[in-house]
Amino acid sequence: MLDHPRKGRLLTEDDIIALEIGAGILGTGGGGNPYIGKLRAREMLRADYEMRLLSLDDLDDEAQIVAVGGIGAPLISFERIKEGREGLRCLRALEHRLGFTADAIGCEEIGGQNAMEPLVVGAMAGLPVVDGDGMGRAFPEMQMTTYSIYGHRSTPSVMCDPHGNVVSFDHAITEKWHETMARACVIAQGGASVLASAPMSGAFMKRYAIPHTYTQAIGLGQAVIDARKTHDDPVATICAREGGQHVFSGKITDLQRHFKGGFNVGIARIEGLDDCRGSQGEIVIQNEFLIFRRDGEMQVCVPDLVVVLELDTGLPITTELLRYGQRIAVLALPCHPLLRSDEALNVVGPAAFGHPDITYAPLAEKGAA
Amino acid sequence: MLDHPRKGRLLTEDDIIALEIGAGILGTGGGGNPYIGKLRAREMLRADYEMRLLSLDDLDDEAQIVAVGGIGAPLISFERIKEGREGLRCLRALEHRLGFTADAIGCEEIGGQNAMEPLVVGAMAGLPVVDGDGMGRAFPEMQMTTYSIYGHRSTPSVMCDPHGNVVSFDHAITEKWHETMARACVIAQGGASVLASAPMSGAFMKRYAIPHTYTQAIGLGQAVIDARKTHDDPVATICAREGGQHVFSGKITDLQRHFKGGFNVGIARIEGLDDCRGSQGEIVIQNEFLIFRRDGEMQVCVPDLVVVLELDTGLPITTELLRYGQRIAVLALPCHPLLRSDEALNVVGPAAFGHPDITYAPLAEKGAA
To answer: In this structure, is residue B229 part of a structural domain?
Structure first.
């Protein structure tokens, strides 16, 4: 059993503020806005709760880690305040159900609002949060984690809603079935619930979690804050940190968005500015920014990250906040190698998002450019 | 603990054949067609399984009874064959979960196909089925049982689908929330699953189950079979047995059906024949036959039973089998007094079906006419 309560680095309010920005950037337009989660986390720190971040290196192989995350429509959870203890109730119900005690809390998705939920639950339970996640970005469905891709069965799981209802997914024949049933249920519950998945071992997480993504997101957010203070270019700062490329600058000239098959889908067209004058950019949206094309040629594609920032401030823009006339920078960040295997591309490659015609061409990896 | 395995009356193939007709009549047009269930039950009897019917009088107060029933869209479960052991898996998962052993199987809904499911599960588990149910007819939603109405909390429950997925509803803040979440989940599972509810005590069932409804349905079906053999009038036979009234005979001249808010809703208009020549009948459909009006005046209304039979054969017609030009008899059968209390009318009265303008006027009770 892990000597858990006192392990890990204590997070500060400044870390949470930076995490909001970093998680927003890694959300690639989706994953929900981390703003409400930031407020919750900050209030907890002010009320003397402790938030600890535990490196994967410090995790015992035998430790049992429960990943928790919000499930539902991101826009709903931005507008509808949580009851607040949904995640803790999930954790306790799962522990009671399976007869174990969690050693640490895990994160499913560092991109967007699910960066915050594990911190809140960890603080309430007195447990550290593992510094890593299952996506390294945001994806719209539960089976799209490296945990699921590399063999973890996420059932039995427990889902709690703000009303007090509790549902267990005892067994799903596939990870996708788990997603399908939980998705239907959360919609019935009002669209903003929390789910805790079956525990993972420390040994499994060390191998298959995308590592250090809390540290990465906090550092990224802090770099943007610092760049703005010193009037440096935040876009260049982000690219330098992440081994990314600034692939386009432009003004949004056309925006089509609609709801199809449970996804927010659409296209944003961008007229080039500055170095890109005379070029046309196009972003394909499917909850997240999925694909970027320049003058009809694909430049970046899922699972690599298409990040959209305000050109002037370097702050991330989510898909629902795109507006006609906005001046934006499009960045391409390489995804983690765990998302580039054949197993992973089957689940999170372009074909999994309905683009079987597109062959994934990986961006140069961080440090390789 | 109940001395259960050898108690109760053994059912025969003839009983099952009669039950198909009787359950169809008490289904008031809904509850699903019991035909497939009859085939399953008959095959089990031929394979030497035993089906036992246990009178409420023979039930120990301390006995623990698990009610099981199909949930989903009746039409789907008529066209899509079950895996077959969903109900048994639900029972076992619930027993394991709560750490008890069921003494008998209960029925939620005698009307339609849910008359058969408990018999199949009871036969597989070697347990008798209690002679009674929670509706005395068919209703479209789970909270519409006398069990729920009179205080049983049906969670924790377990739902199994034909694929092998298992979901538990651990806690629902109301019975209606249980219905809402289970309904969403079963739709995701393909529309034809089985659910086992939290156990009831023998003492509770003696007080709040609608009694003897298996015996009633089997007797009713047998009476129709006998009347057809002896060329007696099956419609008159049913009315005599059930204390009901033959309120209309006619030909369907107009039929409107559509899907609204999860219900099959519609109206059937009937031109009078025989004694009813010159009159117009109208049936309001909401999964079941809900209301019957003659020349604009309400004659029968939920929770009393509006039963539609083929005029010539006395065989029940379900809402989806109504056709233009059909010659039908409309019967009114009084519901059980347990459905007529204020508590019950709040859940299964006309207002609960979206007709707050209609005041329920009870039919004369069985034996009182």
So the answer is: no
- Residue of chain B minimizing CA distance to A186: B181
Average pLDDT over residues A32-38: 90
Q: Are residues A239 and A179 both part of a single domain? A: no
Shared domain check, B208 and B318: no
For residues B57 and B345, is the Cβ–Cβ distance under 8 A?
no
Question: Closest to B185 (Cβ–Cβ): which among A93, A173, A181?
Answer: A181
Report whether pLDDT(B70) > 50: yes
Residue span of the structural domain in which A58 resides: 9-213
Tell me: pLDDT of A4 over 80: no
Q: Is A188 on the interface with B (CB under 8 A)?
A: yes
Q: Is the ipTM of this complex over 0.90?
A: no
Does the beta carbon of A81 lie under 8 angstroms from any beta carbon of chain B? no
Residue A292 and residue A195 in one domain: no
B168: contact with A, CB 8 A cutoff = yes
- Average pLDDT of the segment spanning A187-206: 95
Q: What is the pLDDT of residue A139?
A: 95
Residues in chain A: 369
Are A111 and A26 a contacting pair, CB within 8 Å? yes
Consecutive H or E run containing A308? strand A305-310
Residue among B164, B168, B183 whose CB faces A173 most closely = B164
Say yes or no to pLDDT of A204 above 50: yes
Question: H-helix or E-strand containing A201?
Answer: strand A200-201
Work out the minimum CA distance from A354 to partner chain B, whole angstroms: 20
Shared domain check, A207 and A253: no
Residue A3 lies in a domain: no
